[in-house]
Amino acid sequence: MKPIRAAIVGLLAGLVVGGVAGIALGGARGAASGADGEAADLLASMAARQDERLGRLTQEADESARLQRELALALFFRLQEFRRFGLEGQIVTWIVPGASAGSNDPLGGPLGAAVRLPQLAVDAATRAEWGAVSERLASIGTEVDPTVFSAFEDVLEFIEGRPWPEGSGLAAAAASGWTDPAAVETWLSLNRALVGRADAILSGF
Q: Could you tell me the sign of the dihedral formed by the alpha carbons of 51, 52, 57, 62, in that order?
């Protein structure tokens, strides 16, 4: 009987030890599962914050790009305005002294006597429009490249030193010194310089 009891006792002891070990293993697995869940939640939270940050950065980048495009477009149109101003200053006309004032052909006389003049120097109406444009461009100088605005100011300074004629026609131009070939060439050169500086920047668009 003793051997049988010993065997039974041994079997019961093994069951108790196995049960305890199983409980311990189950607890460890449960703890590990809980830790994995917390880590996954933490990673998901970090990923969400990263996505949110990237979204903000993308939105800011898009907004910056849009503003840059708008500024570039505004500069392009400003440069075109200064360029047109310089081109208008280069328009010339030829007038023959003694030609009929009502003639549609300013070259209605000997061609050798024809005088080359800026259109602005002989046409008061065109000058009035030019003056209005020059005032407007002078007010937006900060919106254009400094080299272009400097060339524009050179044109205006020349006019300050040699004012436009009072009235239209050759006689008025001659009375104000606008029939002087050197003065005319200086005027044209200043306007060509203005157009050239605008073109140098516009070529990059």
A: positive
Q: How many residues does the chain have?
A: 205
pLDDT number for residue 34: 64
> Is the separation of the CB atoms in 85 and 152 below 8 Å?
yes
Round to whole Å and give the CA distance between 139 and 142.
8
Q: Check: CB of residue 64 under 8 Å from CB of residue 186.
A: no
- Which residues of the chain are modeled with pLDDT < 50? 1-2, 4, 6-13, 15-25, 28, 101-102
Is the CB of residue 118 less than 8 Å from the CB of residue 162? Answer: no
Contacts of 129 (CB under 8 A, 6+ apart): none
For residue 150, give the nearest of 107, 114, 200 by alpha carbon: 200
Q: The tokens 């280069």 sit on which residue?
A: 90
Point out which residues pair with 92 in neighbouring strands.
118
- The closest alpha carbon to 193, from 157, 159, 162, 154, belongs to 154
Give the predicted TM-score (pTM) of the model.
0.67
> How high is the pLDDT of residue 33?
61
146-161 and 124-139 helices cross at what angle (nearest 10)? 140
Q: What is the largest CA-CA distance in the chain?
A: 156
- Could you report the per-residue pLDDT of 61-93, keeping only the tens digit for each? 777 777 788 878 999 999 999 999 999 999 999
Q: Give the CA distances from residue 33 to residues 21, 24, 73, 105, in Å, rounded to whole numbers and listed in that order.
A: 18, 14, 59, 101
